[in-house]
Automatic annotation (TrEMBL):
Region named Disordered: 1-32
Native source organism of the sequence: Ruicaihuangia caeni
UniProt lineage: Bacteria, Bacillati, Actinomycetota, Actinomycetes, Micrococcales
Alphabetized UniProt keyword annotations: Glycoprotein, Hydrolase
Record's protein name: Glycoside hydrolase family 13 protein
Residue ranges, compositional bias (Basic and acidic residues): 1-14
Pfam families according to UniProt: Alpha-amylase
SMART domains named in the record: Aamy
C-alpha cells in the first residue's frame, strides 16, 4: 500500500486522469485481476436511456455509454451494470423484453454492444448486464404464439394462463395485484372473439410472467445466458430474482397481520409469488453454467425480500454471488437503525461466505440525495412529485446524502453507485404529468408518481445542449435548469464538489482496501464515549466516524483523509462523515 500520508486531504484532490487500468477481457482476467473481483467491487449502474445519447434522439444509447467510459475510469469504479438495452416496446423502460438476444435499435446494435464491451474491458472495467427472466414483453414471439394457439396449448404453457373464476370465468383466477398497481391478471379475447382465459403479470399488462415449471422456459434462459457469456459479459444482474417460481396452485394472497411483512419471515414466505423455495434450483443451474466459462463471471440477485437471512439464501456458495442489500437502502437515517442493518448484513451474508453489498440509490427508488431527508413513510416505488408534502431543501439533503455515501463506501464488501449520485443529483419532483412514462403512474391513474424522478438524463457539460447528455437538445425526460450547475464539468476539479468527494472516497477505499477489510465498532474514541447518534468504526487502518444525530461530535486525532462536508475546528457537525488515519 502506498504511504497513506501522501494521500491528499479532502481539500487537495488530484484531478488528473486515472492511471493505466488493467485490461479485463476474459482471456486476461485470470492473470491480471485478483480472484473474485466482485467481493470488493464498486459497481456503477448505467441506466442506458438516461446516461449518454450519441444518436441525438433524446434517448441514451450504447455508443453514448462507450463515449463516456473514460469518465467512469476517472471516477474510480471497478465495474458497470447496464440496465436493459434489449429489443423491447419500452412499456417498462426495457424491462419488457421482446428479444433477449438482440439490442433495441433505440440503443444501437449488437456490434455497438461488442464495441462498448471491448472498450470497457480495455479500460479495466467489468460489465454486468441485466437479465429479465420473470416475464417477457407481450410482444415476445412466444407470447404472441400463446395468444394465437389458445387454451391448453403448449404455447400457453410457457406463461401462466388460467381460466377465470365466476360463472363465466369473468373473475380473475386469484386476488394477486400488480406491483405497479391494479390487478395482476388480464383477460384475453380468444380466437372466437369472446373473452377467454386470463394471464398473470406481476408488473404491467405488457409483461406476462413465464411459467418457470416449464422446462422450455429454463432452456430459453440457458441459451440467453450463453449468448451473452459467449460475447464476453462478466455477469448478470437478475431482475425480480425472488419472483420466478409461484406457489403451487396459485393460491390467494393472505394479507399480513398489522406489522407483518410481505417479504416473508425467517421461516417461510407468506406471499405465494415471492421467495418460493423453487427459485433456488434455477440459480444453482445457472451457477453451474457460469462456471463452465473462464474468468470470474457473476450473478447478482435483485431480490426484494426480508429479513436479510432470507436474502442471504440467494448467495449460498452454489447459487448467486451477490444480492442487493435493500434493507440497507431502506434504512432510516438513524444511528441505531444503521448499526443494526450493517451488523445484520455482515452476519447474514458472512454466514454463507458471500460479501455484503451496499446500495443507496437505483432506478427504482427516490434518489438518496432527496430520500434520506424525507420522512420515513415514503413507500418504495411510489415516488414523489409536485403534490408531495414536506419536500426537503436541496442543500441540507445533499449534505446528508454525502454523509451516507461516506459511510457506505467505508464498509467492507461491494458497493453499488447509481449514475448521477456522484454529481449529487436530487430526485426530480416537478416533472410535468405529460412527460411521465413509468407504468406505475398510468396504472394508478396518477395516484403514485412512480420512478421517473430518478431517471432523468444526467448532466455532463453545463454549456452544451441537454447539458451534454445528447448530441441534440432533446432529452426523453426534461432536465431541470438547476442541473446546469451540477454538470460533471462544473464539478471536476472543484475540491468541494460531490464528484470530487466520490472520487476521493473511491480512491481511498481502494488504497486502504476497505472493501476487503473488517468492521470493528468503536464505542469510545480517545477515552470519550461516542455521543448518541454517532457511528464510529475501524476498517483496516482507518477510523470512520459518521455523525447521524443532531449533536456535534469530535473528529478523532490523526490525518483527516476524507470529509463529506467541512469539519470546522475539529468538530464533526451533524450529517457529516470523516475518514481518519489515526495518529499512533
Ligand atoms: C425491477 C426493475 O428494477 C424495475 O425497474 C422493473 O420495473 C421491474 N423489476 C419489472 O421488471
Amino acid at each position: 500500500m502506498a504511504d497513506p500520508l501522501e494521500h491528499p486531504g479532502p481539500h487537495e484532490f488530484a484531478t488528473d486522469d486515472a492511471g493505466a487500468q488493467p485490461d479485463v477481457t476474459q482471456e486476461t482476467a485470470g492473470e491480471s485481476a485478483p480472484p473474485e473481483w466482485w467481493r470488493t467491487a464498486v459497481i456503477y449502474q448505467v441506466y442506458p436511456r438516461s446516461f449518454a445519447d450519441a444518436s441525438g434522439d433524446g434517448i441514451g444509447d450504447l455508443p453514448g455509454v462507450t463515449s463516456r467510459l473514460d469518465a467512469l475510469v476517472e471516477l474510480g469504479v471497478d465495474a458497470v451494470w447496464l440496465s436493459p438495452f434489449y429489443r423491447s416496446p419500452q412499456r417498462d423502460a426495457g424491462y419488457d423484453v421482446s428479444d433477449y438476444c438482440d439490442v433495441d435499435p433505440l440503443f444501437g446494435t449488437l456490434a455497438s454492444f461488442d464495441r462498448m464491451l471491448e472498450a470497457a474491458h480495455q479500460r479495466g472495467l467489468r460489465v454486468i448486464i441485466d437479465l429479465v427472466p420473470n416475464h417477457s414483453s407481450s410482444e415476445h414471439p412466444w407470447f404472441q404464439a400463446a395468444l394465437e394457439a389458445g387454451p391448453g396449448s403448449p404455447e400457453r404453457a410457457r406463461y401462466l394462463f388460467r381460466d377465470g373464476k365466476g360463472e363465466h370465468g369473468e373473475l380473475p383466477p386469484n386476488n394477486w395485484e400488480s406491483v405497479f398497481g391494479g390487478p395482476a391478471w388480464t383477460r384475453v379475447i380468444e380466437a372466437d372473439g369472446e373473452p377467454g382465459q386470463w394471464y398473470l403479470h406481476l408488473f404491467d399488462t405488457s409483461q406476462p410472467d413465464f411459467d418457470w415449471s416449464n422446462p422450455e422456459v429454463r432452456e430459453l434462459f440457458r441459451g440467453v445466458l450463453r449468448f451473452w457469456l459467449d460475447r464476453g459479459v462478466d455477469g448478470f444482474r437478475v431482475d425480480v430474482a425472488h419472483g420466478l417460481v409461484k406457489a403451487e396452485g396459485l393460491p390467494d394472497l393472505e394479507l399480513p397481520e398489522a406489522g407483518g411483512s410481505l417479504g416473508g419471515s425467517r421461516e417461510a414466505p407468506i406471499v405465494p409469488y415471492w421467495a418460493q423455495e423453487g427459485v433456488h434450483e434455477v440459480y444453482r443451474d445457472w451457477r453451474r453454467l457460469l462456471e463452465e466459462y473462464e474468468g470470474d463471471r457473476v450473478l447478482v440477485a435483485e431480490a426484494w425480500v426480508d429479513p436479510l437471512e432470507r436474502v442471504a439464501s440467494w448467495v449460498r456458495p452454489d447459487e448467486m454471488h451477490q444480492a442487493f442489500n435493500f434493507s440497507y437502502l431502506m434504512s432510516p437515517w438513524r444511528a441505531d437503525a444503521l448499526r443494526e442493518v450493517i451488523d445484520d448484513s455482515l452476519a447474514a451474508f458472512g454466514g454463507v461466505g458471500a460479501p455484503s453489498t451496499w446500495v443507496l440509490s437505483n432506478h427504482d427508488v427516490i434518489r438518496h440525495a432527496t430520500r434520506l431527508a424525507l420522512g420515513e413513510d415514503h413507500l418504495q416505488g411510489h415516488g414523489i412529485g409536485p403534490k408531495t408534502q414536506g419536500l426537503p431543501d436541496r442543500m441540507p439533503a445533499l449534505r446528508r446524502a454525502r454523509a451516507a455515501t461516506g459511510l457506505m463506501l467505508a464498509l467492507p464488501g461491494s458497493a453499488y453507485v447509481y449514475q448521477g449520485e456522484e454529481l449529487g443529483l436530487p430526485e426530480v419532483t416537478d416533472l410535468p404529468d405529460h412527460a411521465r412514462q413509468d407504468p406505475t403512474w398510468f396504472r394508478t391513474k396518477g395516484e403514485r408518481y412512480g420512478r421517473d424522478g430518478c431517471r432523468v438524463p444526467i448532466p455532463w457539460e453545463a454549456d452544451a445542449p441537454a447539458y451534454g447528455f445528447s448530441e441534440s437538445s432533446s432529452s426523453w425526460l426534461p432536465q431541470p435548469s438547476e442541473w446546469r450547475e451540477l454538470a460533471r464539468d462544473r464539478q471536476l476539479g472543484d475540491p468541494s464538489s460531490t464528484l470530487e468527494f466520490y472520487r476521493a472516497a473511491l480512491r481511498l477505499r481502494s488504497e486502504f482496501a476497505l472493501g476487503a477489510g473488517e468492521l470493528e465498532w468503536l464505542s469510545e474514541l480517545e477515552g470519550e464515549r461516542m455521543p448518541k447518534g454517532v457511528l464510529a468504526f475501524r476498517n483496516n487502518s482507518l477510523i470512520v466516524v459518521a455523525n447521524v444525530g443532531a449533536d456535534e461530535a469530535r473528529v478523532p486525532e490523526g490525518t483527516l483523509l476524507l470529509a463529506s462536508s467541512e469539519v470546522p475546528d475539529g468538530l464533526l457537525p451533524a450529517d457529516t462523515t470523516v475518514w481518519v488515519l489515526p495518529a499512533r
